[in-house]
Please model this.
Amino acid sequence: MIEFVSANIAPIMFGVIIFFLLSGFPVAFSLSACGLFFGFVGLELGLIPAALFQALPLRVFGIMQNDTLLAIPFFTLMGLILERSGMAEDLLETVGQVFGPIRGGLALAVIFVGALLAATTGVVAASVISMGLISLPIMLRYGYSRPVAAGVITASGTLAQAIPPSLVLIVMADQLGRSVGDMYKGAMIPALMLVALYALFIVGLAIFKPKMVPALPPEALTYREPNGSSGMPSLGVLFVLVTAISVALGKYYGEVLSFMEGQPVTEPALDETIVVAMTFGTLLALLLAVLNRIFRLGLLSRIAERVTFVLIPPLTLIFLVLGTIFLGVATPTEGGAMGAVGALAMAVSRRRLDFKTLLQALEATSRLSIFVLFILVGSTIFSFVFTAVDGQIWVEHLFDRLPGGQLGFLLFVNTVIFFLGCFIDFFEIAFILLPLLGPVAENMGIDLIWFGVIIAINLQTSFLTPPFGFALFYLRSVAPVASYPDRVTGKRIEGVKTADIYRGSIAFVIIQLIMVGLVIGFPQLVTGGLDDNVKIDLDTIQIQRPPGDGGGWGDNTGGDAW
Model:
């Protein structure tokens, strides 16, 4: 028996931790207890030297000293402040008025607002609950299919896992030993493509199944001009004007820099050009709206002015946070700190920040941060002992005989993670599996930023897959179960069944899996926007003496190499 345990301690250890996770025991304590128990077993069997355990406290203290992890409480606080300041309600109301008159417009508004909330709040629960409370009654009132309404709300809420500044991407970068900024850059294009796929699905329903996603009736539009018109042409003109100016600035950004600095500037980076052009365009729209209101110029309609004042502040905050990270001006931790300060400033300016709101946000931030920290400590203890008993070699041998090389490895790993996501939280999967899979992927020549983005999009499905899809539970907690009288029309509206919520998620889970396949098939979607890594061959390095330096090291031809 002792010989069997000694020869198979790594798979036994892995099987025991999976058992505890599936049993529902607290994850952090399961990981710590399992790691320490098998560590002592390894000591008794002579598999682990006693001196090795002296390094364990240093590993734990290393977590406390990790500056990258500070971004988690900063971004969480930013999102909670914005969510509690009523930004979600204003966005949904305003964008719903813009898209409402077209078929599927309310669903498109939910997707658009979900993407904005993901880029600002980054909290799935806040997004799903806010959109469920505000949008779901309106969709049911005007005849939307219940599965479609439930599916678009839950799926849009999960965008917070894929769109930077996602907490999942921060954890991915930390566990894979890569830059958070590079992980954000790599995830941006796939995340935006996922939003586009959601929108295309709704457009397809509007074309082929129009009764499932009807348009809002004229009486539901509240922002109208005194003459009864919608005011949409004014919004269109403002959008075209600001877009044209932003594109022109991006095209001649190099010349503008040369003029400002007084010397020729080489071709600026594409991400810098995009961030500067979009920031300038949003600020220009806000300036025009402010001047129009102060001087009562009457150039903008009510809906155009409303859209500007509601959309520009969160967009500016997004550019402030992500722009500074992408440009290298700030680290993710510094960007998160700026975002938290910006969110507090926005809440104060809207007069929606009081001591109670701030206290609730700080309490929730502390709870989530401590939750992540304890899981990270537990996973560190587990992975430390697992590595000490050569567990990483056992994991590598598991994938030695997989057919298909890199593709076979990626397909197998993503299949396992997809099914684990039905039962286990995404933090647990990231902290337990990534330290084991990361070295294997790197040894196979897989770019770890690409690998991390694939896993992040896959983990997004864990919020939508029964039986433990958290987004499904969040919507169930706020969706009406029984029929109720509508406060606007006075008609009785049937409630939403749990089966409707589950059925609505199926199409969006398929879309997310399609996106996983696209990222696997086209790595340049992730790696195309990253800076090329400069590889240095130490065997070819030469140190040469400058010409004319006669310091006794030889002739002054400058060709002496050391």
User: Anything to note?
Assistant: The beta strands are 484-485, 492-493.
